[in-house]
Design a protein that fits this description.
There is one protein chain. 46% of the residues lie in helices and 0% in strands. The protein is built from ten helices and no strands.
């Protein structure tokens, strides 16, 4: 018998924020097992694996294996170091997950008094710059965005079209995982999905990726798709999620 779901704005961590069953060992990648798996693969297979995971595919077989093992370790650490999850919305408002310093409205935020301009002036070796929510701004990410020029990538290029297709496939899969009608998904919906994954797994909002949605599902979490609709979110909640999203691409 299904349980009654609470609207998103009425719950901190609602009943569905808890795994359906204990799956503490699910989703962790054993180092030795992966090492053996990678050793048995051909170089071309390792390159395909790197490409599928967004990693560089250059170098010899040892380089590729080292790159994949490093990515596996980062994934394990990402979840191993996440403590006290699930985390309530109220708690993330006071202490955003992964923020280096407490939030402050007097601090610059992306879209107003852009902290990107400040960090570019200070340079890569200057003192750290934090955004309004307390996240440290990444100089390399800001510099990379400033170096791009309008029209530098053709809208009809194969790589660009492949990227759009991949993003569409991922959004469709995310909608399936989160129990949401993909035809009713809005930008706010996608932000709310990431926030839910972030809070349930205890990882920073700006680090949430497709694999984290799969991990969330493997651990037994489930959601009521209606909780991600704007009509079920208070204005305060919508603002909280939007503020997490603004400038997230430039955070460390």
């Amino acid at each position: 018998m299904s349980r009654r779901k609470q609207p998103l704005q009425e719950s901190g961590v609602n009943a569905d924020s808890k795994p359906l069953k204990k799956t503490s060992k699910v989703g962790l990648v054993p180092t030795e097992q992966n090492a053996r798996k990678y050793d048995s693969l051909l170089k071309v297979e390792l390159q395909k694996e790197c490409t599928a995971r967004g990693l560089f595919k250059t170098g010899n077989k040892s380089d590729l294996i080292a790159r994949l093992e490093s990515a596996d370790k980062a994934k394990r650490d990402k979840y191993t170091n996440a403590k006290n999850a699930p985390i309530s919305k109220e708690e993330t408002t006071k202490h955003p997950i992964g923020a280096k310093v407490p939030p402050s409205k007097s601090r610059a935020g992306f879209g107003k008094n852009d902290p990107g301009e400040k960090i570019m002036k200070r340079g890569p070796t200057g003192p750290p710059v934090y955004d309004e929510l307390g996240f440290e701004v990444d100089y390399a990410k800001v510099a990379a965005s400033w170096s791009r020029r309008p029209g530098c990538r053709s809208m009809n290029s194969d790589k660009y079209l492949d990227m759009l297709e991949r993003e569409q496939r991922e959004d469709d899969r995310k909608a399936e995982i989160m129990g949401t009608d993909k035809n009713k998904s809005s930008a706010l919906t996608l932000m709310a999905w990431d926030d839910r994954i972030s809070r349930d797994l205890g990882i920073p909002y700006h680090t949430v990726e497709m694999e984290d949605f799969e991990e969330w599902y493997r651990r037994g979490f489930r959601a009521d798709g209606g909780e991600f609709e704007a009509r079920n979110m208070s204005q305060e909640e919508q603002d909280r999620v939007s503020n997490l999203a603004i400038g997230s691409a430039f955070r460390k």
